[in-house]
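Q: I'm writing up a methods section and want to include an example of the input and output format. Could you take the sequence below and give the corresponding predicted structure tokens, formatted cleanly so I can copy it straight into the document?
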Amino acid sequence: MAESTNTKNGQTQQISLGKGLNLGLRRALEDDPKVLLMGEDIGKLGGVFRVTDGLQKDFGEGRVIDTPLAESGIVGTAVGLALSGYRPVVEIQFDGFVFPAFDQIVTQVAKMRARALGTVSMPIVIRIPFGGGIGAVEHHSESPEAYFAMTAGLRVVAASNPVDAYWMIQQAIASDDPVVFFEPKRRYWDKAELDPDATPYPLYASRVVRQGTDATVVAYGPMVKTCLEAAAAAADEGRSLEVIDLRTLNPLDLEPVYASVRKTGRLITVHEASVFMGMGAEVAAKVTEKCFYSLEAPVLRVGAPHTPYPPSRVEEEFLPDLDRVLDAVDRAFTF
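A: Here is the clean output for your methods example:
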């Protein structure tokens, strides 16, 4: 991630998603002395994906803290810090490593504000690199977002591009509610132009990222780019796909999806997680409730099979890709 880090004088710059997170974290640390970063190897090493590279050097070991290998302890410590007025940002090194902290997250982080009848806030951000595509094995390539999205009291978001990564991490840190922040690890090196003086898009809002008229494709995180590529391929064959980046999984912002489906009459949901009980199932149910008479075909879902994550040699067969998205689009026109 060797791109420029100059963000002065409104100059746009090309940054990667990982660098966008780094710059966003840096800006949050500069703006609020109560912001702390915690995680395994995030200090001197800069994190396994180098997202926190250089931050401990510039802000010190008291604010960018290398922790023991104990996710439950990391999150539990963050709870105490949040109750004491700090804004801790904790990194879970890989998606599958979050489960030792699952008890802390769903029984403490998510419940504390309601338990105190709103008298305390819980401004914790839990960063989780998620998804496959890097040739790693189980516990390093999983998509556990549905576990957290269905947990009342948690906010759950997923950045899909460098610009969103830069702004969304700052917005999450500024929130008084706990935010589980999913980062698509295989997109860490994707690049885009950032204007640091632009007005950020709202945190809990989905966005139409490609206009279309024939079918709606909804995705988030790593699959947004795949769906945009599928839409470009479909356009070559004369089919117009509208692509929506959900961005927020709890709360779900489905008004743009409803508006799109009422226009196109067809919906395909796409995510890396298992189709069974995945986020696509909730989107499909809500769209069926709200847009039943606009649908010209059943809502179709594209995702991984309901099996544990496989060895890396068969990862490409496991993960959804452009062809599987286009196949679902084709099937939507057969009804």
